[in-house]
Specification:
Number of helices: 9
CATH superfamily of the largest domain: P-loop containing nucleotide triphosphate hydrolases
Distance between the termini: 96 Å
CATH class of the largest domain: Alpha Beta
Number of domains: 2
Radius of gyration: 30 Å
CATH topology of the largest domain: Rossmann fold
């Protein structure tokens, strides 16, 4: 009985040519394979071994870079506390009902595309006017464009920091330093609802602990991209944060586009 090796030797034919790779001068194999006189395969290398290996190395590097970028974005975003009711909303969902809201939308879109010559957006106005909605959309826009961003309201942030004081021996728990480092290093910080937090006042009637945290944050964010929102007037913030209020407000307002929003609470639409 004829062996496979013997069969292939006597019944196959290979028309074989070597061509040079135009990119690197390496070898490209071109051949036609015949078995028992019938053409079974045409092999035409379109890339040589050297170029193929180089291409695979480049693809591996690109994947590694994308993985690191995604891991970095996810790391910072893991510090976010986002309102569930805004999940999935976009700029298109925002309905501006007056000139101040139209201006807020216009500036938000420019800020999201980094076409605004300000490093900070400062939204001020009553609840339900869309300050958080617009801020949330900008946060998502940054992330989609591979930028690191943290979205959190000040009451939740202070609560997160308080939680670090418990079980301090648990190495798996985030520390206050971890949180403040992330806050200071992200490319965009959205700090929502400044002034809405409640911290037990000190003997002078001021929320000195909250003021100290807010001062550290605003100081670490100078010259970086920020969005701050508040329902409070500057007078109210001065009263709330006491001796540190001027330094805090000065830093929050540094190179800021102030957007004072007016109107009726969107959430109460249709309520009689």
């Amino acid at each position: 009985m004829e062996s496979v090796k013997s069969f292939l030797k006597h019944h196959t034919k290979k028309n074989h040519t070597i061509k040079k790779c135009e990119s690197c001068g390496g070898e490209l194999e071109h051949y036609d394979l015949y078995i028992q006189g019938e053409l079974k395969a045409k092999v035409r290398d379109d890339i040589c071994f050297t170029c193929r290996r180089k291409k695979e190395d480049e693809e591996f590097k690109e994947k590694a870079i994308r993985f690191r970028e995604e891991a970095k974005i996810n790391h910072f975003n893991s510090f976010s506390v986002k309102p569930l009711e805004l999940s999935g909303v976009t700029f298109d969902d925002y309905q501006a009902n007056n000139a101040s809201q139209e201006l807020a939308l216009e500036k938000s879109l420019k800020f999201a595309d980094e076409n605004l010559d300000k490093t900070t957006l400062f939204f001020q106005g009553d609840t339900g006017l869309g300050k958080t909605h617009l801020s949330y959309c900008i946060h998502n826009h940054f992330i989609k464009n591979n930028k690191t961003s943290i979205f959190i309201d000040l009451p939740s942030l202070l609560s997160e920091i308080r939680n670090t004081y418990r079980d301090s021996n648990d190495y798996r728990r985030r520390t206050q330093d971890d949180i403040m480092k992330a806050i200071g290093n992200c490319e965009l910080l959205v700090l929502d609802d400044i002034g809405a937090e409640y911290v037990k006042p000190d003997s002078n009637g001021y929320e000195s602990w909250a003021a100290d945290i807010l001062f550290q944050i605003s100081n670490s964010r100078l010259g970086k991209k920020n969005i701050y929102t508040t329902n409070f007037s500057s007078k109210d913030l001065n009263r709330k944060y006491g001796m540190m209020s001027k330094r805090i407000i000065s830093r929050l307002m540094s190179n800021a586009q102030v957007l004072k929003m007016e109107g009726k609470d969107h959430r109460l639409k249709g309520l009689k």
